[in-house]
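Sequence in, structure out. First:
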Amino acid sequence: MAIRVLDVATPATPLERLVDDYLIHCQARGLAPRTLDNSYSYSLRAVFLPWCAREGITRVEELDRRAFDRFTTQLLARQHPDGRPISKHSVASYVRPVRLMLNWALAEGEEVKAKPQLPRTSKPHRDVLSRDEIDLLERAIPAERDKLIIRILSDCGLRLDELTQLKPEQVIRSGRQAYFRVLGKRSRLRDVPIPPNLLRRLDRHITHRPPDRREDRVFLRLRRGPMGDYEPMTPHAVEQMVKDAAARAGLRKRVYPHLLRHSWMTEMIRNGMSPIQLSVIAGASMQVIADHYTHLTKDDAYDAMVRVLTTRQAYRS
């Protein structure tokens, strides 16, 4: 597989060189390409550096508290093309990579005088899909390949990149059990259990893939590519398929692949899985689980506590 090299234009100022060095450092750490491109690179190159150019700032030591206050204030005043203000969460997503870059620069011995403040934000409410809605989503899709993708996302909680990179040898069998062995964020390997009924469907799908395929991926396009073979599905193709499936199913929520992972994690927590177990299986930190799963209701907390206490009482008797 070819190594992807970060596209770095010739920098014109010391600050641009510093940003480029930091992005190369992030790539060397093994940061996911989508995270690197969509968050770090965009925030630093398309938002931060153009602002610095307009302000006449070319060196990191010129960035003081007043400069960063102007930076954050101007971001908060920006609007979408339709006139809607940019949310504080979006502003925070632009500011956070700048803070991380400055932390790195300080450790490298650069003269960092200040860092931008993160705007105060409330925790975003993220919707979830019920199991009935996921069933409806699957029934709305005609192709078995796409039904299987929906089930793997919603019953195993794989990330989008993990799903599109899947190869048959990543299905690991241990007696009557089976797992996806996936390489997740920060290049960490983990084993994700595969339910038995899903494993049977997956085996059939892998067996019946077309032989003239470009790569030995589990999920391929349904039509031949320009070279006459079947190309692997891209993350964008999966996103579009999920969006179309939601429209077919008549779901009025915004449905996207990561929402299926989020719904799976919510279902696991609601049904008593230990957050530690979930962290291991999902490849998510305990902090992420604590920060993003506070939408569970008081009824969920009540039911979880009663289950524990009832089990203890039954054991004592």
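Second:
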Amino acid sequence: MTGALHPLTANIQARHGFFTRAGGVSKGPYASLNASLSGGDDPAAVHENRARVARALGATHLVGVTQIHGTGVIDVQSPWPAGAGPRADAMITGVPGLALGVITADCAPVLFHDPHTGLIGAAHAGWRGAAAGILEQVVSAMAAKGADPSRIVAVVGPCIAQASYEVGPDLRDAVLPTLPDAQRFFTPGRPPDRFHFDLAGYCLARLHEAGVVNTHALGLDTLSDEQRFFSHRRRTLGNGGPIGHQISAIVAG
């Protein structure tokens, strides 16, 4: 999986990429474009992988946050060292050349861009963060700096697909009160108390509720596509072990 990087792109005018696991220097279970510094990989390899992502996007700096499945949004005005990001799950910026990156391995990466102001955003949206309102918080933070939700383009990148995402009643019970029609994001699982959750569709619905009408989901399943993506659920089904994480990033200016 070493060699060229293979970022996936969408209809966003800003430079961006939903990167796969290919094109880096990490070895073993982290092969090869692991972008996470917290998973036990060689830090030197991760720094090189992140540098490759920044170069591929033509970014002056690439920053990320310490993701906690919450709703915190950081307005980034200057870069910090890799691994030293504040505890949050999303960022916005208008600083030219600055890239915002989020790390995922089944959760949904969501990239934002307002072409009029040039503001960008990036969010890590697991089910907890999405249900708590992380995506709406990004839209609000961008709007506070002059973006119009009706102009914002938001794309949900590769994440675990509904067919692969069997969940219990606790998750369903937590999600159902968050939208009037949230039941539509669940289909029955095999046992009567299990369900399949459509994380990408739910994220799109939350974005629409926030006034973002220009939305899209890539529709790629991180669990079933082992060649291109890392997956926490795949690791769990395979009895554990180390795992890498892919990165999705967008550049201002």
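Remark: Residues 43-57 form the longest helix (15 residues).
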